[in-house]
Amino acid sequence: MEGDQDVFCCSGCEMAAAIIKGAGLEAYYQEREAFPPRPEGFAGDWDALPVTAGPDGTCEIRLQVDGLRCASCVWVTENVLQRTEGVEEAVVSYATGRARVRWDPGKVSLGEVAGRISTLGYRPRILGEEGEPDRGLLVRLGVAAFAAMNIMMLSAAIYTGWLGGMDPRYVALFQWVSLALAAPVALWCAEPFFAGAVQGLRHGVLHMDLPIALGVAVLFGHAVVVTVLEGETYLDSMAMLVALLLAGRVLESRGRRRAAEAATALAATAPASARKRVGDAVETVPAEDLAPGDLVDVAAGEELAADGIVEGGQGSVRLALLTGEAEPVGVQEGSRVVAGSVLIDGFLTVRVTAVGRETVLQQMADQLRLSADRGIRPGFTDRIAPWFTAATLVVAAGAFAGWFLAAGLEKALLTTVAVLVVACPCALALSRPLAAAAGLGAAARRGLLFRSGDALLAMGEVDLVALDKTGTVTAGELEVVEAPREALRIASGLERFSAHPVGRAITRAAVEGGIPLPVAEEVREEAGFGIRGKVDGRWWEIRSGGPGRVSVRGEGGESWTIALGDRVREDSRSVVEEIRAAGRQVALLTGDVDEVAHRMAEEAGIQEVSARLSPLEKVDWIQARQDQGLRVLFAGDGLNDGPGLAQAHVGIAMGTGAASSILVADGVISVPSLRPILAGFRAAAAVRDSIRKNQVRSIGYNVAAVTLAAAGFVNPLVAVILMPISSGVVIWGAFRVEQAV
Amino acid sequence: MNAIFFLLPVAVLLGALFAFLFVMAVKRGQFDDLDDPPKRILKD
Fold it and tell me: Over the range A119-153, which residues count as b (16 or more CB within 10 Å of their CB) and which as e?
């Protein structure tokens, strides 16, 4: 855009450019790597939002900004905000597209701040409540790691002293310092494990935290006694154990937090407002102030704020949020319309029948949220933990009894402590969170965000992959499939200001094809009919020419056809082939008519097709396959896919889809492709493999070490060498997950 | 060698000082976002 002459596709872009230049940020145009979406009309009544001012009189809000596609987009947004009068602070995250804005309500309103963002072509939405990052674990880890390293250094000196003889005074000093360092580790850093063990006991479960807590308690108690009596302590083992386990927890909680963040970002909403008729006048009110019986006006491009019945006017409505299908549906007097749908063209007067929580949209979302609460599946590690704990206690008791009879109380006590030390299931407890964190990270880098490690593991069990059509196998947007270049040029001139999906598809195709958009004059758009106007001084008109086509006619008798349609994603076919090559079935489920469904399925290489399915029939379809013993993965994007996503063994939502489908899904695909599903399968297999191997290794280690300890062969030095070897093997195994995906 | 009775606690206290600095850094939120700052520096 930077040149002798600036050409803009629409007035919105021109305005955005003016703001960017005005702020002295022209560098954006040289550095950007992707075009922003087209600036749109400003939706929502931001000033109606309740905001509370802080003690210094400034307000703060967190926003999710959609459409930030490259680093330059973030940079320009952040800088434009910072240079807005009245904005005290603005930070936009490169990684997540979240913005934190602090402003002075006396100088600028939230509406103006949000308006600045939307004039640039990006769409601000409000983020819901979200917990602060858990810093506590990291602090505990820091303290434990510091103590562990120092204790190890001191212990190394003591162990070396065994060779050359060491003044007992120094040994005592080193041990007392070690004890002082170990005290905060055992009493404070290890607190989460004690809490977990106690909680488990209260529910009558032998939790994995129990043997850990037991080990830490025995080690520390033993060390206190022995330091006073002058003997050998295992404090180095204990501190390292706690530090390693905390590191595993920190990694796990980071992965989970990232997934939760992604989900809340996708579920963020813009505030809705409506134009209500009061007598003869029309006033703009927040959506929550509407009541059943009110009359509201809805103009083209606006979103419906409530459910209702059309009383006057006509137009076409896009119901994508509800049905998942992109094609607009015509409505006239007497038609029912629902909140959340967008009026593409025309003008409606609607009698409100339901608002807020009573709307179809909200009720579906609530229902989905309820069904999403399905509890955590116990992992293999949690299932063997009770046996493991019980076995350790039995062996320890046996060793104590045996040695008490054979060599007296002191030797018996020492051996029992050694058994409990080496039996502490550090490696076993680490294996699952580490492998899961590695797998979640590997899948996320390839575009598939999982809600939990359980969801990732469940993916490995899938036999049948059911795919929704619109927005999943296909791109979900109307696109120009075929058009003569000249027709596209003329049409883009006429359609460049149109909000209709057809107009947008044509303009987008022209811009992508490098066609300079001509200037059109006297353009008139007639709802449900077409568009007329002058391009290059001659009259042209665009009319609907049957399903999926529009005709472009000129006054000179020219007549061209532009074919439009929802296209199968470029890589869908290869993804389907690879899924099938891995021995899994693939099926296509859609609410669309048979003909379209079969054509799309053929294009994507899918044999099994079920068309004309309502959302609930999709659930029945999945249920029927599950009754046959198949584990079904369902991928979809619409609100209507929500029940299916909840029913399936693994539900995967498209990040571009309806917010409620994302809330209920186990995983979210963050790129416009199905390829991440393959990465998910690979990650699930790698994690499963890694966990299984690590469990075998760590159980093998524990059995061997406990046997040695019970036989009386283990002293503190042997323990401190054995333990990190087992943990190291587990960590190494987890790192191999990334390579395997 | 008696110096060790003095030097060892000093060394541990020095270490504790750094552990304390780390804890302060965490509490001030320096570790909350590890993805953004490395990218931010490229744009200034």
Answer: bbbbbbbbbeeeeebebebbbbbbbbbbbbbbbbe
Judged by a CB distance cut-off of 8 A, whether residue A174 touches chain B is yes
- Using an 8 Å CB-CB cutoff, list residues of chain B that contact chain A: 1, 4-5, 8-9, 12, 15-16, 18-19, 22-23, 26-27, 29, 31-33, 35-36, 39-40, 42-43
Strands A281-286 and A273-278, how do they pair?
antiparallel
The pLDDT of residue A374 is 39
ipTM of the complex: 0.88
What tens digit of pLDDT does each residue of A213-232 get?
888 888 898 889 888 887 77
How many Å apart are CA A524 and CA A541, to the nearest integer? 9
In the DSSP assignment, the letter for residue A269 is B
Q: Tell me the nearest-neighbour CA distance from A256 into chain B, angstroms.
A: 14
Q: Torsion-angle region of residue A265: left (phi > 0), alpha (psi -120 to 50) or beta?
A: alpha
d(CA A169, CA A148): 23
Nearest to A133 among B16, B32, B36 (CB): B32
Show residues of chain B in contact with A75, CB under 8 Å: 43
Q: A607 or A30: which carries more pLDDT confidence?
A: A607
- Give me the active site residues of A, please: 468
**Residue A210 CB neighbour total at 10 angstroms:** 24
Q: Determine if residue A712 is left, alpha or beta; phi over 0 gives left, psi from -120 to 50 gives alpha, anything else beta.
A: left
User: Average pLDDT, stretch A571-597?
Assistant: 88
**Apex CA A388: angle with CA A385 and CA A390, to 5°?**
110
What CATH number labels A11-126?
Answer: 3.30.70.100
Per-residue pLDDT tens for B5-40? 888 889 899 989 999 999 999 888 888 777 777 777
Three-point CA angle A683, A687, A691, nearest 5°: 175
CA distance A16 to A287: 29
> How many other C-beta atoms can be found within 10 angstroms of the C-beta atom of residue A163?
7
Task: Determine which of B1, B7, B8 to mutate to test the interface with A (most A C-beta atoms within 10 Å).
Answer: B8
- What is the pLDDT averaged over residues A283-300? 80
